[in-house]
Amino acid sequence: MVAVAGEDEWLELPALNIAVLLNSLISSQTNSQESYTGKIGWYRAALVSEIVDGRTVRCMPISSAADFSALMDEDEAAKVPPVTTALRVPSMVYVNMKEPPQSCIKCAIGKRRQEQQLFQLTGIETPRVDFDEAHLADPGRCSSTRAYGSQHMDLEAEPMGTASAASLSDLVLGRVVLLQIDSIDGDEGWHGRMLLPAVCNSQVEGEDKVEKLYKLLASKAMAWEEALNGELEDLPESESEWDRVEAIARLIMERRDAEGVEDILTFFFGTVFDCSVCPPTMAVTDVAYVMLFRGLAWVDARSLFRFSEENRGESVQHMLAVQEGAETQRRGLWSLPFDLFEKLPVPDRRRFSGERSDFPALLIAQLLNHAQALEGEARKHKNRRIQQRFFAALVVRVVDGDTVRLVPVLSDEAVRLHVDPAERLMMTKVKGAMSVSTRWIMDCPYCPEVELSSWSSEEKSEENMSMDSRSILTQVYGIDAPEIRVGGIRQRYAGRSKHRRAEDYGSFYLDSGGQPLGVAATRALAELVLGRVVLVKNLGDDCHNRLVGRIFVPAVSDVLIDKRKKYKKFFAALLSRMRAQGLVKGPLAPGVKGVVEAVKKLSREEVKGLDLQSTILQCLQEIRLDTISGLVDASEELLRRGLAIVYKGWNVKYDGDTQKERLNHLESTAERRLCGRWGLPEYCRVDPKDFRREHGRNRGGKPRANRGHCTDALLGIKEAVSIPERKSETAGT
C-alpha cells in the first residue's frame, strides 16, 4: 500500500496503488526490471494540474503519496468535489453554463511547472477551445437568441468547446488519475486512456470510502474467479483490504498468465461502487466514455478507420456505441442546429458499431432502430423511450417463468463486464436449449441456475445494493407462468419421493410454497435466455412499473459458442431473405456488410408507406438455421411447451392483434397435445392469477416508484436518476 503519514491520518490514493499493482504484475509477467516511467503499455498515476481542452490535460506524474502532498495544498484539495458527484452532472449543465470553468490548479503549477506532462485521451476528439478567450468572453457580444447557453464563450472557438473542456475539468482537475500509456508523440506527449477511480483521495473523501472501494474490488474479483475456476487456494492473511486486493490479483495472474492484467482491470471496471444513483457508479471509470456519453466528444476519424479496416478490439466498438446513444438522445453537440454542427470536423460514420460484435442481437437492434428513423416515427412520439423501441440486453437473472432481469448492453466490452468468456463457453447453443424435452424439464430434481456468477449474493449484499439501479425488471409479454415460492428458488436436491404418484412429476417437491411447474417454467426460460445477449422489443410499462418486453433469442446468439462459420451463414440467410422481400437491389458485399449496406442504402422515399421494422423482423423470423427460426420468441417457446398460458387482463400488451391470435393458437395446440401442464391433473392447472388472488400476491412484487426512471437511465434516455435508500429487497422484485 502506498500512503503517507500526516499529523492525524494517512493519505491514501487509490489510483497510485492500482498503478503500482498493475505495473508489478506486468513486470513479473515479462521478467522486466526496467523502470516503467513513461513506457508504452504501462500505467502511471498523475495529478491533473491543467485543462488544455476537452481531451488534453497537463499533469504531474507521482510515484508516492508524498509527491501529492508536496504539490497540492489541503485547502485546495478540499475544494475538489467527490468523484461520484462529478459523474452525476448532466451534460446540459455544461452546455448552458454562464461562466468559464476552472482550468488549472495554481498551487500545483507554481511549485513544479517544468515537470508538467502533456497527456491526450486516445480515441476521441472534442471541439477546439481557447481558455483565454473564454474568460474574456462578453455575453453581450453574442446574439440574444443563442443556440445554447455557453455560446458566448465559443465565439473564438468551435461550438461547445468550452462545455467540453468544463466537463473534463469537473471530472479530473485536481485529482490523481490512472493513466494507461498507449503511445508517445515526437514532443514527448503521452497518449492513452485516463481511468478515474470512484474515490481519489482519502483525506477529502474519507478513509471509509477508500476501504469500501478496496473491499468491493476484492469481493468482485474473488467471487467471479471462484465461480469460474474454483476456490482461490493459499490466499494469505491480509492486514488491510488493499493487501487482500493485491493477494487476489497475484493469484489470478498465476492462473491466467498473459490475460491476467486485462482480466483484473475488467474486474475493476465491472465492480459497482455506488447504487444510490442509476446507472450506478463503477469502481473505475474511463473518462473518454463519460465525455462521449455526455455528447461532448466524438470518436476520432483514425479510430473509425482502425475499426473499419483492422478491427482493433472492443474499445473502439464501445466508443462508437456510446456515441450512437448520445446522438439518438441528442445530448451535447448532437443537439446543435445544423449550421453550427457543420463547423465541427465530425467524421461520417457510415457504419454500425454492432458490425464487429460477437453478438448478432447488438447489430439487429441497431438495424431495426435505424429502420424506425427512416420511417420518421421517432420524431412524432412524445415518449422518448419509443425512439429506442428495440435494444440488446444481457439476461443476468431469471426471476420466474415470465420475469427476468436485463442489463442493456452497447458492445462486447459491456458484455464482458458481466459475463466472462470462460462462462460463455459453458453455455449451450440455442438449438440445444430448444431440443431439451419438456418432460425432462418437468422431471429434473435439481434446481436450475437462475443467475450469472457475476451477480453473486456476496456482491449484492454490500449495503443492500438496489437491483433496480443495475438492471431492468422485465415482464415477458403476453404470458403468465406458474408462480414460484416467495423468496425465490431454493438451491437444493429434491430427490424422488417414495410415495410419488403416477400423475406427479419429478420436480414436484421443488415447487413447495409455489405452484406446480413453477420451477420447471423457470428452468425452461433460463435454459433459453440466461447469460445470452437477446433482442428486446420495448412494449411499455405495466401497472407495477416493470418494462414489458418481447424477448427474441437469435438462432446464433454468440460467435464464441456457435462459431464464425454459422455466424456468417446467419447473416447470409438474412440478406437472401431481404432480397426476396425486395429490400435489396443490386450487388452487395456478402454477410454482415451486405445487410448493413442494404439498410443504409434505403431512403425515406423507398420505405414510404412500408413498415420497414416489421418487414426486417419478419425476414429474421422466417429464415431457418438447423430447423429453428432465426429469431426465437421466448413467450412462444413457453406456450409451445405448455409451461405458461396466455395472460388475460386489462390493458395487456400482446404486440398487436395478429400476435395475440398466434399466442392463443400456440396455447390451444399445447393443450390439444397435452404438453406440459395440460398433461397433468387438474391441481397442476390452476390459473396463476387465481393462485395469486388466493395467496394475497401481486404479479409485480413491491411497487417501486423510481423503477420507470431507472429503466430510462439504463437505456440511456436519462443521464442519472437518484435512488432513495431502502433497507432490503426481497427476491423476485
From TrEMBL:
InterPro entries: SNase_OB-fold_sf. It comes from the Eukaryota. Gene3D superfamilies: 2.40.50.90. This is Uncharacterized protein. It comes from Eimeria necatrix.
